Amino acid sequence: MRNGRLLSCVLVVCALLAACAPSSSVRRSASEPHALILISIDGFRADYLDRNITPALADLAARGVRAQAMKSAFPTLTFPNHYTLVTGLYPDHHGIVNNRMVDPETRAKFVYKDHATITDPAWWGGEPVWVSAEKHGLHAATMFWPGSDVAIADVRPTHWQMFDGTITPDQRVDQLLAWMDEPASTRASFFTLYFDQVDHAGHHSGPDSAEVDDALRSIDAAMARLVAGLKQRKVYADTNVVIVSDHGMTATSADRRTYLDDLVPLGDVDVINYGILAGIEPHAGKASSIEAALLLPHPHMHCWRKSDVPARLHYGTHPRIPSLLCLADHGGNITSHGYEDDGGHYSAGEHGYDNDDPDMRALFVAAGPEFKRGVIVPEFDNVDVYPLLMHLLKLKPQPNDGDERAVAGMLADSPP
Q1: Annotated catalytic residue within 78, 239, 250, 252
Q2: Which residues are within 8 A (CB) of 157 and not within 5 positions of it... i.e. 6 or more apart?
Q3: Is residue 21 part of a domain?
Q4: Catalytic residue at 78?
Q5: pLDDT of 38 higher than 90
């Protein structure tokens, strides 16, 4: 009788412990994917990892896979590349061809910092990972990612937040961890996390500055906080983490500025973009004279008709790309005297250059149950990340420009 009561007490205690266990510790069925966290550290140049000031990132790389570098899509800008990473499409194919665009038919403007202009789903082609996940019965939770606050195909992630740059890295991590604590019925399988501080420091102070190093340490501390939170929830060993950046960063030089108003009458063109990649639309009847002035050798930039952009850049067919494109050389900038007269500010660091420029190379680190350990893989294109993500989520990829074979070798179940 006494033994029977003792057994009953043990069973009751076990049941109570099970009921009180964090929801994230619920077992995953064989048919369900491991939780997947996709993290972007905006502006993290591939060689920043070699500065030896990001131990949490280095530990993840040692535990899993690191690429020598990842090649960004052209143009090497934030919005085009973030959307490429989650669709597997080049900007020429998904339609986010620049951070600032004008639609040639509607004359609508897209300005990446203006939420009112970017939330129209008509801008966003392809199907990002979170939309596919939601369509197939998985939940997604996005702690910022360009496009994730837009109702693409009338679908948003189960959990999402409108971008707010005042939310600190630690607060972003804590929100993601809180989503991981959701009950199984609403808990996400796919998460995103976005940090912009390294990019801001690179623009403001240049890539070799103490400010960039401080930003790297800050984001690494947030990564350590995330790892600690996963371990506390006992899901660290069962979670795939993929860490990327959208582009690199390089120092600029005032000696490499090109002034468009020294070359063409600005009254004869619409300049869609200044900066690293200038987009120029000649007015009616002015195309010949504008081309004659721009399609010449220039000291610090190169110009093309959109139809003549080198094929390796996978850029130039989308209607939103202006008729003429001028790309600054390494460290250069395309501007106007009027911009300077109005007090225009130039960044100490920039990106947007040719994606063959070594300083534009991006970060790739991945760790988790489905990745090999302690492996360094050769450079690959960032369009290949999308089929990798879809494989990890056990979803069929949508048509895309990536090649799963390029990243298959980093998976644990692939042959040596």
Answers
A1: 78
A2: 130, 134, 139, 140, 141, 142, 148, 188
A3: no
A4: yes
A5: yes
Give residues with Cβ within 8 angstroms of 311, minimum separation 6: none
Q: Among the three residues 346, 364, 397, which one is the final residue of a domain in this structure?
A: 346
Q: For residue 197, what are its two tokens?
A: 């501080």
**361 residue type, one letter:** R
**Residue 224 lies in domain:** 31-250+356-408
Q: For 73, which DSSP code? A: P
Task: Identify whether residues 169 and 315 lie together within a single domain.
Answer: no
| CATH code at position 66 | 3.40.720.10
- Residue range 251-261, pLDDT digits in tens: 999 999 999 99
Q: What is the pLDDT of residues 310-343, one digit of tens each?
A: 999 999 999 999 999 999 999 999 999 998 888 7
Report the C-alpha gap between 270 and 219 in whole angstroms: 40
User: In terms of domains, do 373 and 388 share one?
Assistant: yes
Element (H, E) at 289: helix 287-294
| Rounded Cα gap, residues 281 and 43, in angstroms | 29
